[in-house]
Amino acid sequence: MIPSFRSRIFVCFLKVINFKKRVEKRAVNRVAENKKRFPPGRIRRLYHINIQTSHKKDIVTFESKEKVNRNHILFLHGGAYIFNITRGHWRLSEKIVRKIFCRMTHMDYPLAPKHNYKDTFSMLSDAYELLLGHYPKDKFILMGDSAGGGLALAFAQKLVKEKHKRLPEKIVLLSPWLDLSLSDPDIRKLEISDHILSVKMLQAAGRQYADGDRLDQYLLSPIKGEFNSLPQTIIFYGTEEVFSSDCKRLKSITATRRKNFIFREYQKMQHDWALFPLPESKQLMNDVCDFITGKGKNSQGEILKAAIEKHQACQH
After folding, report:
1. What is the pTM of this model?
2. In whole angstroms, what is the distance from residue 151 CA to residue 78 CA?
């Protein structure tokens, strides 16, 4: 797949403004949370919203004023566990709501350095119970990008481990951060092509979030966790991002669970391209919606058909 002209211009822009160094500087010198209005005014004006609170943090659910179905996405935003939700997150989630008329929930979960991962999981667990109680008939889908993707997968593993009575129906991971220890040696090579993330920035953020605890435990590095009994999961990653090597590792680990794990590799895409106004982000959004609604190439039937065709081709 050849990247679009807009995508190529976007990469040039990232290089010119030295975006990666700017983010790295903010991460290394981070001392407090950067508060923004949650949710933004546009969401308040155009959608029905419901704001609940857990651990003194807001949980915002919004839905279309036209109609709504039982699909309910719990979107855990990225930002290396130190940065707040961005306009890109709201823009992507709004597009999904408009397309498939689901409910969408974002939460202002605790961030480092003021908080650590134990605070985050405590709030997330209580918020999940709150949402289950308020929307008992909804079908919950866990979704997360970057650090939020790692958090979503780890939380799902935690629910399985605790034998929770209501597991999410599906999981959607966008450019997920799967290994806080950054142990894969290929990450250093990929850092050259990734113009958004640097290893130095990720190491600084990971240390603050872990707060001195081991990085190789599944709550921090879900690639180290168990994958039995997880719901159907789709993972999107770009070939130019540092996390692509860990996504490929996860693909190998879950190779025997082909029905439950789907991987979508986007050629020449930067980290978290889904959040930027690019043609490829629209394609990803459509893929996500098809996966959630069970339509198109990501449906269970299409996946099984593809597996059968592949098996038959191998025999010939």
Report:
1. 0.92
2. 9
Q: Which domains does the chain have, with CATH numbers?
A: 5-315 (3.40.50.1820)
310 vs 152: CA distance, rounded Å: 30
Q: Which pLDDT band holds residue 17 (cuts at 50, 70, 90)?
A: very high
User: Cβ contacts of residue 63 below 8 Å, gap of 6+?
Assistant: 47, 48, 97, 101, 102, 103, 104
Please give the structure tokens belonging to residue 239: 């070939």
Q: Which residue has the tokens 């190439």?
A: 297
Is 82 in a helix, a strand, or coil? coil
Give pLDDT, residue 312: 39
pLDDT reading at 120 higher than 50: yes
Q: Closest by alpha carbon to 285, among 247, 234, 243, 244?
A: 234
- Which pLDDT belongs to residue 89? 97
CA distances from 234 to 148, 181, 231 (A): 14, 23, 10
259 Cβ neighbours under 8 A, 6+ residues apart:
232, 300, 303, 304, 307
| Phi-psi region at 27: left, alpha or beta (left = phi > 0; alpha = psi -120 to 50) | alpha
Sort strands 103-107 and 57-63 into parallel, antiparallel or unpaired.
Answer: antiparallel
Tell me how far apart the terminal alpha carbons of the chain are, to the nearest angstrom: 27
Sign of CA dihedral 146, 251, 259, 231: negative
DSSP code per residue over 88-122: HHHHHHHHHHHHH--EEEEE----TTTS-HHHHHH
Judged by DSSP in three states, 302 sits in: helix
Q: Cα angle vertex 95, ends 94, 98, to 5°? A: 85
| Stronger pLDDT, 256 or 59, i.e. the higher one | 59
The residues with which 145 forms a beta bridge, in sequence order, are: 174
| Assigned token pair, 115 | 């908080």
Distance CA 186, CA 168 (A): 32
